[in-house]
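User: quick one, sequence for these tokens?
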């Protein structure tokens, strides 16, 4: 989910970040630039759960200007490993 705030002052960014971090359904919260102010990765059981999450995070927050949500249909790949260079013998 991409979230753009109406006001981007430090206090506004910090306030939304604190709200997102406190929400159990938010798995990842990234403050990004340029473009939206935040990218959130959210886990929802179903659409009613997603609605409840968005109402807590977005609807009740008067500083949210725009939201763009993406829904995963299929996970083709997921990895957190990084290729490390092979150490050469001395």
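Assistant:
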């Amino acid at each position: 989910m991409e979230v753009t705030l109406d006001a981007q002052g430090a206090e506004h960014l910090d306030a939304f970040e604190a709200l997102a971090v406190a929400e159990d359904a938010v798995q990842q919260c990234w403050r990004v630039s340029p473009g939206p102010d935040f990218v959130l990765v959210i886990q929802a059981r179903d659409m009613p759960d997603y609605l409840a999450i968005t109402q807590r995070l977005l609807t009740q927050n008067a500083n949210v200007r725009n939201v763009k949500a993406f829904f995963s249909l299929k996970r083709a790949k997921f990895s957190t490993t990084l290729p490390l260079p092979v150490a050469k013998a001395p």
